[in-house]
Amino acid sequence: MTAADAMSNWDRFVFTFFNADIAMKYGWEILQGAGVTILAGLAVVITGIGAGFGLAALRAIGWKPVNFLIIVFVDIFRSLPPLAIILVLFFGFPNIGIVLPSLIVLWMSLGAVLAAFAEEIFWAGITSVPKGQWLAARSTGLTFAQTLRYVILPQAVRLGIPPLTNRAISITKNLALGSAIGVNEILGRANSALSMSANATPLTMGALLYVLVFIPLVIASRTLERNYRWGEH
Amino acid sequence: MSSAAAAPVPRYLLEARGVRKSFGTTEVLKGVDLLVEPGKLVFLIGPSGSGKSTLLRCCNRLEEPDGGSIIMDNVDLLSPRTDINAARRQIGMVFQSFNLYPHLTVQKNITLALRKVAGMSTADANARAAEMLALVGLPDKAASYPAQLSGGQQQRIGIARSLALNPKIILMDEPTSALDPELVGSVLAVVKDLRARGITMVIASHEMNFAREAADKVVFLDGGLVIEQGSAEDVFLRPQEDRTKRFLAQIRH
After folding, report:
1. ipTM score of complex
2. Do A67 and A131 meet the contact criterion of CB atoms below 8 Å apart?
3. Which residue of B has its CA nearest to A227?
4. How far is CA B197 from CA A140, B10, B164, B190, B192, in A?
5. Which PROSITE patterns does the UniProt entry name for this protein (chain B) (predicted)?
6. What parts of chain A have a pLDDT lower than 70?
7. Contact between chains at B116 and A142 (C-beta distance less than 8 A)
8. B12-248 topology per CATH
9. Is it true that domain A25-227 has CATH number 3.10.105.10?
10. DSSP string for B59-70
11. Where are the domains of chain A?
């Protein structure tokens, strides 16, 4: 292999993946995709974690039929691949007269998956709070609901933060699946720019944007863990 | 005897009779009486598994007794019409492993029930907490978290937390067993102070020297039954029953 050949390979690599002209041309459009990803991501995280928290609190009450339904929901949505849920909602549901916009389908699908995992994480947190905490709180006359709210759940949340942030990030990354049903998020836009330009630079930009969007989330989760130490060193 | 419960001024502040409790097939309490007069300090002794903790927990229905009756200051605790959350305000409880809320400061540990159960304002509750902290000798720990305190300090906070609600009686479940020996004294000093203030207490504990000094009555429990009871002098120095003698010989070693 000659030096000239090596140079031309390198040039081809740069031309294909780091092409400034292409980047300029499609940059703004892909950046707008980042806006969609961020908004949809926030919606998924807030509703998913919120619903998971609510389900875990509901499960703590211990109504058997309700708990059965919660467990069924949780187990199904933890086992289904998110893409399968998205495709069923988007292509299957119109057959029974339910037509949902692609962004809503994406949000509902990932939100439900995150809710299922979050429920399990919060539930694990609730059950690992020592029984003595319940005894102490109830012995002072706090009701079941007050004990759950003021004593148990704050501790369950702390135990759940590390696994929860990991799970939230890995599920939110699935927003890229939205490209399969035409959601104009980062990957969707990068994909169409890729077809139009016959160049992979939009994918590089997309990847970069994903990093830029998710790194703050990773950092935020670490800050969150630090703030929950309650006087331990 | 049952007429005593209906009398306007009961002889006993806590009157538990024939209390039974089973866990699965294991009968932990086989019909236990525990009678506590107002202002008295009753010591519960007995080997582990004898039912001391279960008996204490039945007295505020943290465990649901299977049978018997428990009357607290004229209130039938086992009646379905009794608001158990309201009744529990009158019955303080202190735990072997302290059970402080790790996510709350000392102040909030003490004020949580004051605010949420007793309906006090935050300012009033904080003032009450300060008063309690002074009483247990930890006036400067309001802003600390439990993890920052020694075991003895945590237990004194546990006592302050239950005392803050101004209960009629405090039940203590082995309050010093989890403590290093050098920390026991500080907790017992608080207990002695409470006794001097006329606060009724039932303490499951093996601190025999303390019991001899402070207990008005000692109840020896074994195998879910009261085997012997009487003054600390009688039970410790002149035990009548063989099981009591054997138990005392064991814990003296």
Report:
1. 0.90
2. no
3. B103
4. 21, 20, 14, 11, 9
5. ABC_TRANSPORTER_1 (PS00211), ABC_TRANSPORTER_2 (PS50893)
6. 1-7, 232-233
7. yes
8. Rossmann fold (3.40.50)
9. no
10. TTTSS--SEEEE
11. 25-227
Binary contact (A141, B112; C-beta < 8 A)? no
- Do B58 and B19 meet the contact criterion of CB atoms below 8 Å apart? yes
Chain B positions touching A130 (Cβ under 8 A) are 97, 99
Is residue B99 less than 8 Å (CB to CB) from chain A? yes
pLDDT digits (tens, 9 = 90+) for A140-175: 999 999 999 999 999 999 889 889 988 998 898 899
The pLDDT value recorded for residue A6 is 62
Ramachandran bin of B38, using left for φ above 0, alpha for ψ from -120 to 50, beta for the remaining angles: beta
What amino acid is encoded at A125 in this protein?
A: G
pLDDT over threshold 70, residue B210: yes
**Domain ranges within chain B, ordered by starting residue:** 12-248
Q: What is the pLDDT of residue A7?
A: 67
Q: Could you report the per-residue pLDDT of B16-47, keeping only the tens digit for each?
A: 999 999 999 999 999 999 999 999 999 999 98
Report pLDDT for A45: 94
CB–CB of A90/A105 below 8 Å? yes
Per-position DSSP letters for B120-166, written without gaps between them: --HHHHHHHHHHHHHHTT-TT-TT--GGGS-HHHHHHHHHHHHHHT-
